[in-house]
Amino acid sequence: MVLMSDYNINFNDGIVPVVVQDFDTGDVLTLAYMDRNALEMTMKTGYAFYYSRSMKRIHMKGEVSGNTQKVMEIYQDCNDNSLLIKVKKDGPACHTGNNSCFYRKLGEPKVDGNIDYSLEILLRLEDLVRKRMKDPVNGSYTNYLIDSGDENIRKKVGEEAIETILASGRDRIVYETADLLYHLIVFLAFNNVSLFDVMNELNRRSK
């Protein structure tokens, strides 16, 4: 296994551009970005992790869509400031459902995306909880829960679970489920468990 100490990458402004290529066909799939942590996670897991400049966080490719990319080879360029990775992809590389993000010639219209990113809110919520753990905010309910300790957090998850199964009517079920998911994410973060860990377990069971 290649270690971070075995090479030198110039992370200009903290990130480097990454050209992603299909290992089997040679097709260019997308242009992404990595910071040092994203590269380390990619090398550790064997799956592509990128740094999102819009969301300002690391994400695993396919964490919402399921269209993961297994990394086969990683190359660095002659100036040590960009990467080329060759992947075996599980599903389309583009959020539009196209094989590649470069699916249209210059001037041709875009197509609407067909991937449901509604679960992205859970990842943003997880990020927020972890930020509150690192940098507490006065008056934050999340910080109140964290400060109350593991036993109380577990109790709240149990209470919310009971309220959810006792809820009557669609709107109430939606409301109580949102409460349950929030408290569950706090519980996971408090115990150093990520949604990625849970998704990995679900993926393992589906095989």
From TrEMBL:
The keyword Ribosomal protein does not apply. GO terms for molecular function: ATP binding; phosphoribosyl-AMP cyclohydrolase activity; phosphoribosyl-ATP diphosphatase activity. One of its GO terms (cellular component) is cytoplasm. CDD domains: NTP-PPase_HisIE_like. Its main location: cytoplasm. Residues 122-207 are annotated as: Phosphoribosyl-ATP pyrophosphohydrolase. It catalyses: 1-(5-phospho-beta-D-ribosyl)-5'-AMP + H2O = 1-(5-phospho-beta-D-ribosyl)-5-[(5-phospho-beta-D-ribosylamino)methylideneamino]imidazole-4-carboxamide; 1-(5-phospho-beta-D-ribosyl)-ATP + H2O = 1-(5-phospho-beta-D-ribosyl)-5'-AMP + diphosphate + H(+). Residues 31-103 form the Phosphoribosyl-AMP cyclohydrolase domain. Pfam families: PRA-CH, PRA-PH. Pathway: Amino-acid biosynthesis; L-histidine biosynthesis; L-histidine from 5-phospho-alpha-D-ribose 1-diphosphate: step 2/9; Amino-acid biosynthesis; L-histidine biosynthesis; L-histidine from 5-phospho-alpha-D-ribose 1-diphosphate: step 3/9. One of its GO terms (biological process) is L-histidine biosynthetic process. Residues 1-121 are annotated as: Phosphoribosyl-AMP cyclohydrolase. Keywords: Amino-acid biosynthesis, ATP-binding, Cytoplasm, Histidine biosynthesis, Hydrolase, Multifunctional enzyme, Nucleotide-binding. It is found in: Cytoplasm. Gene3D superfamilies: MazG-like, Phosphoribosyl-AMP cyclohydrolase. In the N-terminal section; belongs to the PRA-CH family. This is Histidine biosynthesis bifunctional protein HisIE.
